[in-house]
Write a structure and sequence with these properties.
The chain is an alpha/beta fold. The protein is built from 11 helices and 15 strands. The strands form 4 sheets. A 7-stranded mixed sheet has the order 2-8-7-6-5-3-4, with helices on both faces. The chain has a 4-stranded antiparallel sheet with strand order 9-10-15-12.
Length: 388
């Protein structure tokens, strides 16, 4: 028996996306920049996908969707695309729990002289909008706050944060890679200027993503060349996977009203059962939360015999796929920077685990996984459960 519960890492490509990709590979393989019939057939595929992705987030125009190689490139284009407009370093604001595609990009800007404010979060991982108001400066040109945190599942008050940034005259970007297709997103209501998406988080192919750019927002391109993607992302478009992304986006939008409540029910079932296991602490916000996301940390993690990665390895041997938050560098575990930013101890931050649910997840999968997890904990920490 095998159970995959790592849907925040990637999702299996759905058959409908695979089917359209096969069609494009065999029948619509032209270069979309070419003016002849072969090229125009490919161009029509790209533009149809652009419409499908735009509709997922209710973008007013399909031309506001710029296809990229994934969420990381979309995040980099948003941050660096704004920063490169300025010859003199300015000020930008991010949260303290951003994905590394944001935090590492911003770290590079700091080296180049940019001033960066990292907003603190509470123990549940939420940004206080008042902190954003206080952090804004005359030279603040960009605010970037993640929509749904991939490690602990917390969803931020994006609409409120976007309004605050806009009232100050700063651009607002959000990394919505984990939220899109799982929560309703309407960029016209959110006061969002830039928003990042990824195909393989919504059952599309890997290797393609998108950046929503609100009409009128100016960015500097990162890749020079032929000027594809409205001049913001040069290079011949990867037509087959863009087509697969489009189909996945369209189906995600159609299924969201049914699938999101189903995932929430499964998520809450998992939390309720995990609460009965001593030594596990839930992480993230209990209800401002991604619908598919369950996260916990081990109270008695030590990084040697017991860590989040210990549980990942044991569950993998049992045929269950989950993930851990702590990173391993040169054979040594490092505490999760996300949990540290939320105020957890270094010990607890070594013990984070993430269980993320998807289209194929059933109640039986949840029940079996919790049972196996309890057995693993009893085996690797024989004295842990007895002392509570």
């Amino acid at each position: 028996m095998q159970i995959y519960l790592d849907y925040s890492a990637t999702t299996p490509t759905r058959k409908e996306a695979i089917a359209v990709m096969q069609t494009v590979l065999t029948q619509q393989w032209g270069n979309p920049s070419s003016l002849h019939e072969w090229g125009q057939r490919a161009a029509m595929v790209v533009e149809q996908a652009r419409v499908q992705v735009a509709e997922l987030i209710n973008a007013a125009t399909a031309e506001s969707i710029v296809f990229t190689s994934g969420g990381t490139e979309a995040n980099n284009l948003a941050i660096m695309g704004v920063a490169r407009l300025y010859t003199v370093p300015q000020h930008l604001i991010i949260s303290s729990i951003e994905h590394s595609a944001i935090s590492e990009t911003v770290r590079l800007l700091e080296i180049w002289g940019w001033e960066v404010t990292r907003l603190a979060v509470d123990v549940k991982g939420r940004v206080n909008p008042l902190d954003l108001k206080a952090a804004l400066q005359d030279n603040t040109v960009l605010v970037s706050v993640i929509y749904g945190q991939s490690e602990v599942g917390t969803v931020q008050p994006i609409a409120e944060l976007g309004k605050i940034a806009r009232s100050h005259g700063a651009l607002f970007h959000t990394d919505a890679v984990q939220a899109a297709g799982r929560l309703p997103i309407d960029v016209q209501e959110l006061s969002v200027d830039l928003l990042s998406l990824s195909s393989h988080k919504i059952y599309g192919p890997q290797g393609v993503g998108a950046l929503y750019v609100r009409p009128g927002v100016e960015l500097m391109h990162l890749l020079a060349g032929g000027g594809q993607e409205m001049g913001l992302r040069s290079g011949t478009q990867a037509v087959p996977i863009i087509a697969g992304f489009g189909v996945a986006a369209e189906l995600a939008a159609q299924e969201l009203p049914i699938e999101t409540p189903r995932l929430i029910q499964l998520r809450d079932r998992a939390f309720a059962q995990l609460a009965e296991i001593p030594g596990l602490i839930p992480t993230g916000h209990p209800y401002h939360r991604l619908p598919h996301h369950v996260s916990m940390c081990l109270k008695n993690a030590d990084g040697e015999k017991l860590s989040g990665k210990t549980l990942v390895r044991h569950l993998n041997l049992a045929g269950i796929g989950i993930s851990a938050g702590a990173a391993c560098h040169s054979g040594k575990l490092s505490p999760s920077p996300i949990l540290l930013a939320m105020g957890y101890s270094e010990k607890a931050a070594l013990g984070g685990i993430r269980i993320t649910l998807g289209r194929d997840t059933t109640e039986a999968d949840i029940d079996w996984t919790v049972m196996v997890l309890k057995q693993v904990l009893e085996r690797v920490t024989p004295n842990l459960l007895a002392i509570y």
